[in-house]
């Protein structure tokens, strides 16, 4: 007999309940389904009747031992439409009470029997649904009528002479008596609420120093005629205008020049944060945990993702730095009240694209806790009008409300944030891009000197060494 029992239950056991399973007494797991060897039985494909017994046991555990279920020795019964599987079932309730249910009708199904060549036969169960007798064994995770996985059994028939007409086992009607009830486990007191880390205030931006106004007068520094002539390598000619070399110096004022782009956190006017918290958790909540969620404080649900409206803060897109606050909450409940968890008012403190997500947590049920904590370490990259998370990793403070479902370092779902300025104008958007270029203070004045040739008689400047006056182009 090949049967996965319920693939959603197995996935939730591995991902959410930190659980596992083991097989014994001949049963085995092939990576896709459990296999139970046949022990005895009889069938008739003509009459569409069968009663086939199998051996073997599967033991499921999870949630730190709170979930404990054993299924053993299945028996397929096909009886003209009254088709089902009987199993020996033991389990532990979520408050620690062990119950032996005995042999009960575990699932109902639509059975069919086919007989082929070489004494081969096959029994198939489709439309498999949980029977009401098995509901308590799943601690309320599943209700009566819950779809289960299909069943397939390949059989080798004995000689024709040894094939009696199948005798069908009637459906059991068992009222299990619980074993001695142990004292219920007491949830540990929550650890002392850690003080949330406070991002340091950015240091005040120093005011640029303003240089004094320079004296823009031109200073002439005369040289002696002899020195000028010697430097020029010429002797003065009689009757001609005497030409001398002089040095002209100017005081150059500091020019206003653009500095490198300066990033200033821009005040955000609107936006939202879209986050699925954890896909595996939400899927388990919809499935085996029989749970739901409700929204509050302006938050809304978009399928299995949640939107938290922006409530205040600033953000510098150029450096991916800022502090952003969002409002609203989501309240998860399931497992008949044993799961009770609220997450609200997320905030992000980011510096250079890395930082912390804070959340207010309020948990009842199996893991009571209340407080605001550093929930996850995050990394983000720019995306559209905001940014998208590339990693959201659960911190040690964030694990305490999950009752062992998740551990420190577990990757939660990534989130996305959209942001808008208070004004939709282009100038506001430009300012929010934090790419403003600011003028720096004037640089200090400096003295620049230049040699020129001057007519000694008229005082007219004939030319400079490069044919023009310094800093004028004349």
What features would you highlight for this structure?
twelve-stranded antiparallel β-sheet; mainly beta; single chain; 474 residues; 3 domains; eight-stranded antiparallel beta barrel; 28 strands
What does this protein look like?
- Residues 179-239, 254-262, 423-443 and 465-474 have low confidence and may be disordered.
- Helix 1 (7-15) packs across helix 3 (279-286).
- 31% of the residues are buried.
- This protein has 4 helices and 28 strands.
- With 474 residues, it is mainly β.
- It has helices spanning 7-15, 225-232, 279-286, 426-432, and strands spanning 2-3, 20-24, 28-29, 34-35, 38-44, 49-54, 57-62, 67-79, 83-92, 98-115, 120-130, 151-156, 218-221, 243-252, 266-267, 270-275, 292-296, 300-302, 305-316, 321-326, 329-334, 339-351, 354-363, 369-383, 386-394, 415-420, 446-455, 461-464.
- It folds into 3 domains: 2-162, no CATH class; 218-257 and 441-464, no CATH class; 267-432, Beta Barrel (Porin).
- The termini are far apart.
- Strand 7 (57-62) and strand 8 form a beta hairpin.
- The strands form 3 sheets. Strands 1, 2, 3, 4, 5, 6, 7, 8, 9, 10, 11 and 12 form a 12-stranded antiparallel beta sheet that branches.
- 7% of the residues lie in helices and 44% in strands.
- It is elongated.
């Amino acid at each position: 007999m090949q049967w996965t029992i319920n693939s959603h239950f197995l996935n939730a056991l591995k991902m959410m309940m930190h659980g596992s399973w083991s097989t014994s007494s001949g049963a085995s797991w092939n990576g896709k389904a459990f296999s139970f060897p046949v022990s005895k039985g009889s069938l008739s494909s003509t009459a569409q009747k069968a009663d086939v017994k199998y051996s073997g046991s599967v033991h499921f555990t999870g949630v730190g031992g709170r979930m404990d279920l054993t299924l053993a020795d299945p028996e397929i019964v096909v009886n003209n439409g009254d088709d089902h599987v009987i199993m020996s079932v033991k389990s532990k309730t979520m408050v620690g009470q062990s119950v032996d249910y005995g042999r009960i009708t575990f699932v109902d199904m639509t059975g069919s029997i086919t007989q082929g060549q070489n004494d081969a036969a096959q029994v198939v169960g489709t439309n498999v649904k949980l029977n009401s007798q098995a509901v308590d064994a799943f601690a309320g995770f599943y209700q009566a009528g819950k779809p289960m996985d299909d069943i397939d059994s390949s059989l080798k028939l004995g000689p024709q002479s040894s094939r009696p007409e199948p005798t069908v086992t009637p459906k059991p009607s068992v009222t299990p008596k619980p074993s001695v009830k142990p004292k219920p486990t007491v949830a540990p007191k929550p650890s002392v609420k850690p003080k949330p880390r406070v991002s340091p205030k950015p240091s005040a931006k120093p005011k640029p120093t303003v240089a004094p106004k320079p004296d823009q007068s031109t200073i002439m520094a005369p040289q002696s005629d002899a020195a000028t002539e010697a430097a020029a390598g010429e002797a003065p000619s009689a009757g001609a205008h005497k030409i001398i070399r002089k040095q002209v110096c100017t005081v150059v004022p500091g020019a206003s020049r653009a500095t490198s782009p300066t990033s200033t956190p821009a005040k955000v006017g609107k936006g939202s944060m879209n986050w699925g918290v954890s896909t595996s958790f939400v899927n388990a909540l919809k499935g085996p945990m029989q749970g739901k969620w409700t929204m509050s404080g302006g938050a809304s649900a978009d399928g299995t993702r949640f939107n938290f409206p922006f409530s205040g803060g600033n953000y510098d897109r150029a450096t991916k730095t800022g502090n952003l606050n969002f409002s609203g909450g989501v309240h998860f409940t399931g497992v008949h009240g044993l799961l009770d968890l609220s997450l609200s008012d997320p905030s992000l403190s980011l510096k250079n694209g890395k930082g912390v997500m804070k959340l207010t947590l309020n948990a009842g049920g199996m893991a009571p806790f209340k407080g605001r904590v550093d929930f996850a370490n995050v990394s983000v990259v720019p995306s559209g009008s905001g940014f998208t998370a590339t990693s959201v990793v659960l911190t040690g403070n964030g694990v305490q409300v999950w009752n062992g479902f998740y551990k420190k370092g577990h990757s939660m779902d990534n989130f996305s944030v959209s942001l808008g300025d208070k004004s939709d104008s282009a100038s506001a958007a430009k300012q929010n891009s934090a790419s403003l270029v600011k003028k720096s203070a004037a640089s200090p004045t400096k003295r620049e000197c230049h040699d020129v040739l001057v007519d000694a008689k008229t005082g007219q400047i004939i030319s400079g060494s490069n044919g023009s006056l310094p800093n004028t182009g004349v």
